[in-house]
Write a structure and sequence with these properties.
By secondary structure, the protein is mainly α. It contains three helices and no strands. The radius of gyration is 14 Å and the shape is globular.
Length: about 80
């Protein structure tokens, strides 16, 4: 699942609503949920925390190819 809220609709908890509804259904079916995002994606980490996810471990991700600027990673 990916959630993107346009800038003019942010801070209205729309992303949270998009996450919590299916997560409740998935958990009710006995499945274990997990959340993955970049350590640089502050918005995603905050949304995960607000939705009830807690950090268990961080992973190191490796990529090949042309370097990407930090601005593009945090967008």
């Amino acid at each position: 699942m990916a959630v993107f809220t346009t800038p003019d609709h942010r801070r209205h908890r729309l992303g949270l609503a998009c996450v919590t509804a299916p997560c409740g259904d998935i958990a009710a079916r006995g499945r274990v949920l997990s959340w993955n995002c970049s350590v640089l994606n502050r918005a995603s980490r905050l949304l995960a925390w607000t939705a009830g996810f807690r950090l268990v471990r961080e992973y190191v991700h490796y990529a090949v190819g042309s370097p990407v600027s930090r601005e593009r990673l945090s967008a």
